[in-house]
């Protein structure tokens, strides 16, 4: 468990729980700068709250680009989302609004 | 998929940031970021309009990757000193974002322009030409005693080829064909080439084969087509090889399609078709006077250019004794193919390179100044740290890391800017040189930019370090705020400002001289009234071989063009300026009643003109009458001379009524001068007016004519209608060149305009940097010397004295900079020589005006901080 759950981490957790899967997706959903989101993802992965895997090469090849890295929440991560939403009800709402606008 | 600029910048940023990521993670990290960027590019490209916000956000996000990378590094490694220093620098720079941003921007501009010029020079001078052993290829010209390079006369080529042992020679005869198999008749340009021509070049083919010795022996009618014409006219038909196409009505078998890279431009422009010159006519074996062939040469292995030239000199001397009348002063001169292809663009590029180097130096000066002020502000910090045991090397490393961080951002910016600049350069110069057109931002160019960044960082940190470390030593003894401790810093800073002012002056002087030249040139009277004037050039020989038929053809077509709605007037002449093909026909001029030795008879240029040509083209008739419909073949021969001819051959006398003799179509004609026309410039606006004699087209029935059409609407829109009028007379007639005359003039000025714009751009940056430098130096002096001024004022100096003191300081900086700058400008001005038009590189008016301007700007920049110094309260200053 992370020492303290920051608002930014809460937003990222929330975005992952809502189905955002890769870096830019999360940037779009949360509106946070890339210099913030990526370190959070790295930390979540390090703390085993999220895992990452590479997209299949075939899917990527179809679009003529390299495979992306997908992030998903682990069970611990899912549990933390509930905590995050409880602690940041307003922020979670904002993220939702942003996601809808995007 | 094509990468947008935003994507390229984003990818470059990620690659640079990746260097921060610890090695074990780097590959995966980079792949993740690249995949995101490329995926985003796809979505952006799919958007119907250019999504600028999306592009900018993409670049911003990629810039954020550096934080991600730095974060990873912090997590996975114990911080090295270097990373610590960079982070320290970042915090430091964030306190003055505007200054730092400006400095980085300017460094970026400097690195970017230098890189762009490097790429262009690389393409021209270093990269391999698309021919095997291209460095042994050359062109041979006929050089006259005046040093001018001319095309080669056929008989000279044949003798050179037979006698030369150190080089192999082959010739190309420029040729044009009418291709009539398409929707519209079209004129193809190309060459007939002698045996061995393609062996010298060994071009790559996309389809088919090259000519063989058998083809020459059997004199086969075969043709090789360029990639461009194959795609445009034949739709890239893969089955074309072996098929027959009609050129000038004759069948030619297509044997091959050349690769798009094969564009030798040894004959000037783009060439569409190549056929064989398998035999030589008798007149060709005799023709040594005017040349029109282009001769390609390959040095035999082991032969140097000088040795080949020596042999050609010996052959030229032999030919001079054998054919004294024609060859006495003709020298065969060999020139490397590479210099020919560069076509004089090395000089503007060298100039641009110099400008870029100056900007870079100016920007380095600014970074050094920035470092210097940051360093002096931290003098205490360093003193304390040294006292606590920090090694001097540690302080040095820290300053270098700070400059390196700035330089890294500037390199990324510079590479982006260079790719934009190269695009501009390609569009401006590709008409001049095919090699420049191939300049690209490749790996050597990026390495070059990185190298520049390294040099910049070293220079920008070295100077401040030297001065600060010296004053640091002094400071240790006498306390950090002593005046003695500041002195070296002050001198260092003043010297930087002086250099910046000098560099800016050189840039401004160049821009000023180029600007004056351009204005002069643009103001040149072309000799004809250009608005709404259209020109179309035709070669009408093939179906009009007799003079009578040609007269009829032009009379008919002119009548038809006149009936086109929107046409106000129409005329025709054999030579019209600003067209691609200048037809130069010259003749000796003999004036009756004035005996002269045959060798000394002056040369004039001949042109045939229709009666309405002068009126239509707006060429003023100074005196006399224009040609009339009654000036026919059976009437008395008449001529109109231009002002230059009148001035030169009839000084102080009236040429009208004079009887002259010229040689036209091989016959001597006796003509009466009936009028004097205004001068026209040939060879661009910078060209000289030449002595010219006009003959009525009815008496000199040229087959090569250019219609001039004055329209009541925008001339470009009328081209099609005018062509259709000509096709109503002969549906097979082709047009060799066509266009609105104002557009042709603008195109002839374009290379100069681009150079001027770049010079102005550089000069603008230069003066901004120099002004900021002077302002900074004086403002800094005011801050540093507040206590001193306080004492002075307490001791009786007035505020005005303080202001004067500072203004004198600023003025001295300016004068020193101007003096050095003027000296450099005078030395470097010679490089500008060929770009100037009727302005000397030492033009005193321009140089004086620029110097006065620089002095005024620097003094104005000094004024603001000087006024602040006047408001110093002596009591407060002393208390502090």
Structure description:
The complex is a heterodimer of chains A (102) and B (880). A two-stranded antiparallel ribbon of chain A has the order 1-2. Chain A has helices at 7-17, 23-30, 34-46, 57-62, 75-87, 89-101, and strands at 50-54, 69-73. Chain A is elongated. Chain A is mainly α. Chain A has a single domain (7-101), classed as Winged helix-like DNA-binding domain superfamily/Winged helix DNA-binding domain (Arc Repressor Mutant, subunit A), CATH 1.10.10. Chain B folds into 5 domains: 1-78; 86-131 and 347-480, no CATH class; 145-329, no CATH class; 484-525 and 742-880, no CATH class; 541-732, no CATH class. The longest helix of chain B is centred in the C-terminal third of the chain and has 44 residues, at 741-784. Chain B is globular and about 105 Å long. With 880 residues, chain B is an alpha+beta fold. In chain B, helix 18 crosses helix 25. Mean pLDDT of chain B is 82; it is low at 477-485. In chain B, strands 1, 2, 3, 4, 5, 6, 7, 8, 9, 10 and 11 form an 11-stranded mixed β-sheet that branches. In chain B, strands 14, 15, 16, 17, 18, 19, 20 and 21 form an 8-stranded mixed β-sheet that branches. A 4-stranded antiparallel β-sheet of chain B has the order 13-22-12-23.
């Amino acid at each position: 468990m992370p020492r303290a759950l920051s608002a930014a981490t809460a937003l990222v957790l929330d975005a992952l729980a809502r189905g955002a899967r890769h870096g830019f997706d999360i940037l779009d959903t949360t509106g946070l700068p890339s210099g913030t989101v990526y370190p959070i993802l790295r930390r979540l992965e390090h703390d085993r709250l999220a895992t990452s895997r590479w997209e299949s090469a075939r899917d990527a090849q179809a679009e003529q680009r390299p495979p992306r890295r997908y992030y998903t929440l682990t069970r611990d991560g899912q549990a933390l989302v509930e905590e995050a939403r409880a602690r940041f009800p307003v922020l979670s709402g904002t993220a939702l609004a942003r996601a809808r606008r995007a | 998929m094509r990468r947008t600029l935003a994507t390229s910048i984003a990818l470059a940023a990620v690659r640079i940031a990746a260097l921060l990521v610890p090695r074990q993670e780097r590959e995966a990290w980079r792949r993740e970021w690249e995949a995101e960027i490329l995926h985003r590019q796809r979505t952006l490209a799919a958007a119907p309009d250019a999504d600028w916000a999306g592009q900018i956000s993409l670049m911003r996000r990629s810039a954020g990757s550096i934080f991600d990378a730095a974060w990873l590094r912090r997590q996975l490694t114990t911080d090295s000193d270097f990373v610590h220093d960079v982070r320290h620098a970042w915090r430091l720079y964030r306190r003055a974002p505007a200054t730092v941003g400006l400095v980085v921007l300017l460094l970026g501009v400097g690195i970017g322009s230098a890189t762009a010029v490097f790429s262009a020079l690389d393409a021209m001078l270093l990269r391999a030409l698309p021919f095997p052993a291209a460095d042994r290829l050359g062109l041979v010209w006929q050089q006259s005693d005046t040093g001018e390079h001319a095309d080669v006369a056929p008989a000279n080529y044949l003798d050179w080829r037979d006698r030369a042992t150190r080089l192999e020679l082959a010739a190309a005869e420029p040729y044009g064909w009418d291709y009539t198999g398409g929707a519209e008749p079209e004129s193809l340009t190309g060459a007939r080439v002698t045996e061995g021509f393609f062996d010298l070049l060994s071009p790559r083919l996309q389809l088919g084969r090259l000519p063989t010795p058998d083809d020459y022996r059997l004199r086969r009618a075969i043709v090789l087509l360029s990639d461009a014409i194959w795609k445009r006219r034949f739709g890239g038909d893969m089955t074309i090889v072996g098929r027959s196409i009609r050129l000038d009505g004759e069948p030619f078998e297509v044997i091959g399609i050349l690769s798009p890279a094969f564009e030798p431009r040894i004959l000037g422009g783009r060439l569409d078709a190549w056929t064989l010159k398998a035999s030589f006519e008798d007149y060709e074996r005799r023709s040594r006077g005017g040349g029109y062939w282009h001769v390609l040469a390959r040095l035999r292995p082991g032969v140097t250019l000088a040795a080949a030239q020596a042999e050609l000199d010996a052959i030229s001397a032999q030919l001079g004794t054998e054919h004294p009348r024609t060859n006495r002063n003709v020298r065969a001169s060999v020139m490397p193919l590479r210099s020919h292809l560069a076509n004089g663009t090395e000089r503007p590029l060298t100039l641009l390179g110099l400008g870029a180097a100056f900007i870079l130096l100016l920007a380095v000066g600014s970074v050094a100044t920035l470092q210097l002020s940051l360093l002096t502000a931290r003098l205490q910090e360093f003193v304390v740290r040294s006292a606590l045991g920090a090694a001097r090397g540690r302080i040095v490393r820290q300053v270098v890391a700070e400059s390196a961080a700035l330089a890294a951002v500037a390199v990324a910016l510079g590479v982006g800017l260079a790719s934009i600049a190269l695009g501009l350069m390609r569009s401006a110069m590709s008409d001049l040189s095919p090699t420049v057109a191939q300049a690209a931002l490749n790996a050597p160019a990026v390495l070059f930019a990185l190298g520049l960044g390294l040099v910049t960082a070293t220079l920008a940190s070295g100077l401040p370090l030297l001065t600060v470390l010296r004053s640091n030593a002094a400071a240790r003894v006498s306390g950090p705020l002593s005046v003695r401790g500041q002195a070296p810093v002050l001198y260092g800073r003043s010297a930087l400002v002086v250099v910046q002012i000098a560099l800016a002056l050189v840039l401004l002087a160049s821009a000023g001289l180029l600007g004056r030249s351009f204005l002069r040139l643009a103001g040149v009277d072309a000799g004809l009234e250009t608005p709404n004037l259209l020109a179309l050039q035709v070669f009408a020989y093939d179906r009009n071989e007799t003079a009578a038929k040609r007269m009829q053809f032009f009379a008919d077509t002119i009548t038809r063009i006149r009936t086109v709605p929107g046409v106000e007037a129409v005329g025709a002449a054999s030579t019209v300026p600003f067209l691609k093909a200048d037809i130069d026909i010259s003749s000796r001029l003999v004036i009756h009643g004035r005996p002269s030795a045959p060798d000394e008879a002056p040369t004039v240029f001949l042109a045939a003109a229709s009666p309405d040509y002068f009126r239509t083209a707006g060429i003023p008739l100074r005196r006399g009458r224009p040609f009339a419909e009654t000036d026919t073949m059976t009437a008395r021969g008449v001529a109109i001379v231009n002002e230059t001819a009148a001035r030169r051959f009839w000084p102080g006398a009236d040429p009208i009524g004079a009887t002259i003799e010229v040689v036209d179509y091989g016959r001597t004609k006796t003509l009466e001068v009936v009028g004097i026309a205004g001068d026209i410039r040939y060879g661009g606006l910078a060209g000289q007016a030449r002595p010219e004699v006009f003959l009525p087209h009815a008496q000199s029935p040229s087959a090569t004519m250019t219609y001039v059409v004055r329209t009541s609407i925008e001339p470009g829109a009328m081209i099609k209608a005018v062509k259709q009028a000509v096709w109503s007379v002969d549906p097979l007639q082709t047009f060799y060149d066509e266009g609105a005359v104002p557009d042709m003039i603008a195109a002839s000025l374009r290379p100069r305009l681009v150079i001027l714009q770049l010079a102005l751009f550089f000069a603008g940056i230069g003066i901004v940097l120099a002004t900021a430098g002077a302002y900074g130096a004086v403002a800094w002096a005011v801050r540093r010397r507040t206590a001193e001024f306080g004492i002075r004022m307490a001791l009786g100096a007035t505020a005005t004295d303080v202001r004067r003191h500072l203004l004198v300081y600023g003025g001295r900086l300016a004068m020193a900079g101007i003096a050095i700058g003027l000296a450099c400008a005078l030395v470097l001005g010679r490089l500008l020589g060929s770009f100037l038009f009727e302005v000397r590189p030492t033009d005193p008016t321009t140089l004086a005006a620029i110097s006065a301007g620089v002095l005024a700007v620097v003094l104005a920049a000094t004024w603001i901080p000087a006024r602040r110094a006047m408001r110093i309260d002596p009591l407060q200053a002393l208390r502090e």
